[in-house]
Amino acid sequence: LLRTQVEPGRVLSVSNLNVSEVSPAFGSRLQYSREGNTVVITLQDLQEKDSDNYICAEQVMNSSLLSATGTMVLVKGVDQACEKMSWGFYALLLVVALLFCALVCCALCRVDVKKYFQKKKPNVVYEDMSYNSRRSTLVRS
């Protein structure tokens, strides 16, 4: 694996005998695995200085390097202002939620909540219409 543009040089070299040589710039940030003729290379914790054009090349005995077009890797830094803004947004959202809860609690304390959940007694008027009760109200001459 070679870098070709910004900092030209060898990143990883693997021989047929599985002897590897990793550039000190990548150290423990580079891992590779090999299965037959296929090599899988993983670069971790990329930094802005790792931005470059990377190519895989194969060296054949008694010939020059054979290479294909590479892969351009562009690493952008994390914008710290966005991270701070998102924490501020979450803090503001939390404060608004707490204020809303406090408002609801105050409103419930002022209102007699039990009154709304009690079973209402029906408004019934009972009138005795039996003969005995009517007899006392009859007009006698």
Topology:
Layout: E1 2-3, E2 9-10, E3 12-14, E4 20-22, E5 30-35, E6 38-43, E7 52-55, E8 57-59, E9 65-67, E10 71-73, H1 80-110, H2 113-117, H3 131-135
Antiparallel strand pairs: 1-2, 1-7, 3-4, 5-6, 7-10, 8-9
Account of the 3D structure:
Helix content is 29%, strand content 25%. It is of the alpha+beta class. The strands form four sheets. Strands 2-1-7-10 form a four-stranded antiparallel beta sheet, with no helix packed on it. A two-stranded antiparallel ribbon has the order 3-4. β5 and β6 form a beta hairpin. The longest helix has 31 residues, at 80-110. The N and C termini lie far apart (129 Å). The model has no long low-confidence stretch (mean pLDDT 76). The chain crosses the membrane at residues 87-111. This is CD7 protein.
Secondary structure category? alpha+beta
Characterize the overall form.
rod-shaped
Q: What integer value in Å does the Rg equal?
A: 42 Å
Mean pLDDT: 76
Uncertain runs are none
Helix content: 25-40%
Strand order of the largest sheet: 2-1-7-10
- Cα distance, first to last residue? 129 Å
Secondary-structure element string: EEEEEEEEEEHHH
Give the amount of beta strand, in percent.
Answer: 15-25%
Q: What's the total helix number?
A: 3
How many E strands?
Answer: 10
The largest β sheet comes out as:
4 strands, antiparallel
Keywords: Membrane, Transmembrane, Transmembrane helix
Protein name: CD7 protein
GO molecular function: signaling receptor activity
Organism: Sitta europaea (Eurasian nuthatch)
